[in-house]
Write a structure and sequence with these properties.
By secondary structure, the protein is of the alpha/beta class. The protein has one domain: Response regulator (Rossmann fold). Helix content is 39%, strand content 17%. It has a five-stranded parallel sheet, with helices on both faces. It is globular, with a radius of gyration of 14 Å. The two termini are 22 Å apart.
Length: 148
């Protein structure tokens, strides 16, 4: 595997409550050429706690990239996005909305809240795998990321 130009493995945070989508994302990332350390939380409150290193995530690493679903339990993904992008210590972390919604309102609101990208989850397995791999490739092999 090729490792990105960093001192360590790329840290990804996946905020997703659908176990099937978590499995497909793991599979897609497993085929990537960059070493990943994937962390998964299944609700918005846990995502914020992870990012702020609050209990039970006091030792959580700072992610290099966040994949965020919009339709989450306990705290909506839109709320998580607003918190991340308004927090001076978190706002530079690239955040990709990865969701089933293709609503123009959701797309516009996500960009208004400063999402770095909005991707509607493809329905088929192969299309989903390809989409995640393309996002991963762009942000971790093409784009320059800020230091942790």
């Amino acid at each position: 595997m090729i490792q990105a130009d960093r001192d360590s493995t790329i840290v990804l945070l996946l905020v997703e409550d659908d176990p099937g989508d978590v499995t497909m994302t793991r599979e897609a990332l497993g085929e990537a050429k960059v070493l990943h350390d994937l962390h998964v939380v299944d609700n918005g409150e846990a995502a914020v706690a992870f990012l702020r290193q609050e209990a039970p995530y006091a030792d959580a690493p700072r992610p290099d990239l966040i994949f965020l679903d919009l339709n989450l339990p306990r705290m909506d993904g839109r709320e998580v996005l607003a918190i991340v992008k308004s927090d001076e210590s978190l706002r530079r972390i690239p955040l990709v909305v990865l969701t089933t919604s293709d609503s123009q309102d959701d797309i516009a609101r996500s960009y208004d809240l400063h999402a770095n990208a909005y991707v509607t989850k493809p329905v088929g397995l192969d299309s989903f795998l390809t989409a995640v791999q393309q996002i991963d490739h762009f942000f971790l092999a093409v784009a320059s990321l800020p230091e942790r």
